[in-house]
Amino acid sequence: MSDEHPENITPQNDIIGRASATEREPNTADRFSFWIHPAGRLNPFDIVAAEHLEQSHTYGLVTNIRHVTDAAGHLSNFISNDFGELVDEPNTPRQGANVADVSVLSNDKEIYMPVQSEARVRFADEAGIHDALGIDTMAEKEKREGRKIRIPAGLIQMSNGTDAVAYLDVDYVLGPEAGHVNISGISGLATKTSYITFLIQSILQTLSSEKIAVILLNVKYDDLLHIHEARRLEDDETALWSRLGLRPEPWPADRVHYLLPWGKQTQTTGKPNIFGDSIPPGASFYAYDLKTTAPKLDLLLSHVPDPWDTLGALIGEVSQGLQANESKWREIRTWQDLLSKPPLSENGIPQKFGNIAASSVGRFLRLLRRAVQTRQSGVFVSQLSTRMTTLEKEIGAIKGGHTYVVDIARLTDVEQTLVFGDVLRTVYAMYSGELALESDDELPEKVIVFVDELNKYAPSRGEAAESPIVEQVLDIAERGRSFGIILFSAQQFLSAVHPRVTGNAATKVLGRTDSAEVNEGNYRFLDKDIKMHLTRLDKGELILSHPIYRQPVKIRFPRPPFLQGRVKK
Questions:
Q1: Angle at the Cα of 544 (from 538 to 549), degrees rounded to 5?
Q2: Tell me, what DSSP letter sits at residue 498?
Q3: Are residues 199 and 241 in the same domain?
Q4: In angstroms, what CA-CA distances link 423 with 29, 271, 390, 408, 504?
Q5: What is the pTM of this model?
Q6: How many domains does the chain have?
Q7: Distance between CA 556 and CA 569 in Å, rounded?
Q8: Are residues 368 and 511 in the same domain?
Q9: Residue 497 shares a structural domain with residue 552
Q10: Taking a C-beta distance cutoff of 8 angstroms, is the pair 280, 226 a contact?
């Protein structure tokens, strides 16, 4: 530190500058600026404390840092350098200062008058950061109600070395106040999945895990097929887990149930249709025959545009007839029967069915044949054998404290949509009372469902934005938390997902995002300066927005303590 500055900035609580209000840029109740000591160093997302009225402190989030000089314009600086001759010393030395723009978070005495000019500004300490974000009120709520409220969600790290745990209020994650978590960004290899699994582990370790069940859909390679296997952690990773008050442990093997898809070669090889050669212990193989899939035919063809509801009407007739075992459907037992026998087809020719024209029946048969025969991965079978199960049966026996990993990585898009819709519909029916449970065991109080690439199932625009699968996702997003169903979701672009889904996610997490995406309307809740910072986040850095916080904060989180497979074929 240079001796020419008498006020050194080495201790973290020393003054780093003073508030500055000008005629053209006044301080307000929501924002203030301060000049930074010439030796001071800080970054956007640092949290500072400004001395305020009645010995209070106003806390704020640094959103931008500017350098200002006494030059009237850039031309003045050009002229002062001998008209651009790049001289060693300018003819007219300029006086300059670094100025930070700050968005007000809170005041510890609820005084929201503008920060006065010349008020001294310091880095906030850990207690100040918690005060600024409202985390201190969570601690008070814990003491008052005698239950766990704070969920560790990451570590806030400041430029001066101070750090603080970022906590979430469980009532705004799992309900009843609000619910659901959504994460977006192009942060890199498995970053979004890593964060969601970290957050779920944090929830399970902090709360009573016996009251919570988890369903994870594995959509990429074998990323989530090894969550029971421990990974060797570096010392700094272990330290970060410890700082967050959590244990770096994989999922207990006896509490994980892997549900893997039946494949075309499974009958002979015994290997399910998954990436990688190793089969997780205790895995079950799921498949779809016509009988068990009849109630879900609308999900199977939900990707098909149906503006006149002709397809929907026929699917309804087929589904109802098969489930009720009506006389004209009694000979239809397999997918091939449905495609080639009456009442829909005779001698390979589509037949008129009720008020539905033969041409519409033919379209239905072509679409169905493509889905369950010509382009299928093997998950559609004529009959279920003793080696197969159904997702409805497995999810229907869900237990608190257990995690269910449903692999869909190698399925076709149509099959993935069916499986995701099947999981959501089954869970929703169980918790709403529409589906009778096979056992007398009580349902877990909460069930967390995680899916990546949510934009495939609930897109923001296009004809697919109005389909049975979207309706199912919207039901979960808008009414799920009242039943105890919480959706944790991820996608690369927030704007690509149905706004009613992301709008109902109380907690939003943002990774690195490109500049075109941040200008979409879905990001209007962010300060314009914070939007630009999104484009240059490092791997492992995320922006966390939570209802308790007045502004989003930047956090770091530890890598998962379990193995993350990435087997490519």
A1: 145
A2: -
A3: yes
A4: 48, 23, 10, 12, 20
A5: 0.92
A6: 3
A7: 32
A8: no
A9: yes
A10: yes
Confidence label for 327 from pLDDT (cuts 50, 70 and 90): very high
Cis check for the bond before 176: say yes or no (omega within 30 of 0).
yes
Structure tokens at 230: 């421990």
Residues 258, 307 within the same domain: no
Both tokens assigned to 49: 């404390």
How far is Cα of residue 312 from the mean position of the Cα atoms in its chain?
32
Confidence of residue 13 (pLDDT cuts 50, 70, 90): low
Q: β-pairing, 120-123 with 446-451?
A: unpaired
In the structure, what pLDDT confidence band is assigned to residue 325 with cuts at 50, 70 and 90? very high
Q: What residues pair up with 15 in beta bridges, in sequence order?
A: 122
Residue 462 confidence (pLDDT) above 70: no
Of 124, 150, 184, which marks where a domain is finished? 124
Q: Between the CA of residue 84 and those of 94, 245, 550, what are the distances in Å? A: 15, 57, 46
Rounded CA-CA distance 218/337 in Å is 32
- Would you say 149 and 237 are in contact if contact means Cβ atoms under 8 Å apart? no
- Distance CA(501)–CA(504), nearest Å, equals 5
Alpha carbon of residue 557 to chain centroid: 14
Q: Is the pLDDT of residue 472 over 50?
A: yes
Task: Tell me, yes or no, whether 518 and 477 share the same domain.
Answer: yes
Residue type, 22: T
Burial class of residue 474 (count of CB atoms within 10 Å of its CB; 0-12, 13-18, 19+)? middle
Whether residue 400 is contained in a domain is answered as yes
pLDDT tier at 119, thresholds 50, 70, 90: very high
Residue 351 pLDDT more than 90?
Answer: yes
pLDDT tens readout for residues 503-512: 999 999 999 9
Structure tokens at 176: 């009843």
Distance CA 551, CA 272 (A): 46
- Which structure tokens are listed for 183? 């994460």
Contact assessment for residue 369 and residue 339, using Cβ atoms and an 8 Å cutoff: yes
Place of tokens 């910072």: 533
Please, what is the Cα angle at 387 between 384 and 392, to 5 degrees?
60
Question: Which pLDDT does position 8 carry in this prediction?
Answer: 39
Q: Report the alpha-carbon distance of residue 537 to residue 535 in Å, rounded.
A: 6
SS (H, E, C) 136-178: HHHHHHHHHHCCCCEEEEEEEECCCCCEEEEEEEHHHCCCCCC
pLDDT at 5: 41
State whether 398 and 329 are in the same domain: no
Is residue 212 within 8 Å of 446, Cβ to Cβ?
A: yes
Q: Which amino acid, 233?
A: L
Domain residues for the domain of 98 are: 15-124
The count of C-alpha atoms lying within 13 angstroms of the C-alpha of 257, restricted to the half-sphere facing its C-beta, is 20
Estimate the crossing angle of helix 135-145 against helix 126-133, to 10 degrees. 80
Look at residue 482 and tell me if it is in a domain: yes
Q: What is the pLDDT of residue 132?
A: 95
